[in-house]
From TrEMBL:
PROSITE patterns the record matches: ADH_SHORT
Name this protein carries in UniProt: Dehydrogenase/reductase SDR family member 6
Enzyme Commission numbers on file: 1.1.1.104, 1.1.1.30
GO CC field: cytoplasm
Catalysed reaction equations from the record: (R)-3-hydroxybutanoate + NAD(+) = acetoacetate + NADH + H(+)
Family named by the database record: Belongs to the short-chain dehydrogenases/reductases (SDR) family.
GO BP terms in the entry: lipid metabolic process; siderophore biosynthetic process
Length: 244
């Protein structure tokens, strides 16, 4: 028996990094997973994994998101992973950078939640997990202005959905990791003028002496996707109480 036996899970950005690790972890625990990404070639690497169906979807496109939702009679878990890390202060951030980051990091989650939430409400049961970051309203991080702003918005979106729909059987949480060793991070390091120094600077900030792995984040996501959350934290709801 898997921890997610029979659950239907849809997630974005599954071609690599946290999304890929989560898709595999969900499937290993018995879930039926629809793994989406815009990178069709990388996404194909999941085609042979039992329990995973892949589909190329641009989650910033409303028509593609709505078409994806129509393919599912119901969804137990929606995991919004798609995101982009923009480097720089507010003075480095052009309007195009701001719009692109907010579109990928926030609007995509808005579109996915709005498309899939009605299906959850029909069943009076559902679970949304959003990918945020410590670089958000949690902590100010140097040279991450628009990225941190977008992830703070994700936290706000998550709390709003949790407050509005908790009593209708929907729970909504976000994951806020620190530095995670992913292909995206490695690519950003290599793009720096001095990749070796950039890597040393990142490692100097890791109090544990190492970066978190995508698989470790995926373990947390499995827990949030499971029914163990309800068992571990029975909620005693009172008027105006919001538990996120």
């Amino acid at each position: 028996m898997g921890r997610l036996d029979g659950k239907v899970i849809v997630l974005s950005a599954a071609a690599q990094g946290i999304g890929r690790a989560a898709a595999i972890a969900f499937a290993k625990e018995g879930a039926r997973v629809t793994a989406t990404d815009i990178n069709g070639e990388k996404l194909k690497e999941l085609d042979g994994v039992k329990g995973i169906r892949t589909k190329v979807v641009d989650v910033t496109k409303k028509d593609q998101v709505e078409a994806l939702a129509k393919e599912h009679d119901h969804v137990d878990v929606l995991f919004n992973v798609a995101g982009f890390v923009q480097h720089g202060t507010i003075l480095d951030c052009e309007e195009a950078d701001w719009d692109f980051t907010m579109n990928v990091n926030v609007r995509s989650m808005y579109l996915m939640c709005k498309a899939f939430l009605p299906k959850m409400l029909e069943k009076k049961s559902g679970n949304i997990i959003n990918m945020a970051s410590v670089a958000s309203s949690i902590k100010g991080v140097v040279n991450r202005c628009v990225y941190s702003t977008s992830k703070a918005a994700v936290i706000g979106l998550t709390k709003s959905i949790a407050a509005d729909f908790l009593e209708q059987g929907i729970r909504c949480n976000c994951v806020c990791p620190g530095t995670v060793d992913t292909p995206s991070l490695r690519g950003r390091i290599q793009a720096q003028p001095d990749p070796e120094q950039a890597y040393k600077d990142i490692m100097a900030r890791q109090k544990t002496g190492r970066m978190c792995t995508a698989e470790e984040v995926a373990h947390l996501c499995v827990y949030l996707a499971s029914d163990e959350v309800c068992q571990d934290f029975p909620l005693r709801l009172r008027k105006n109480d919001v538990i996120v």
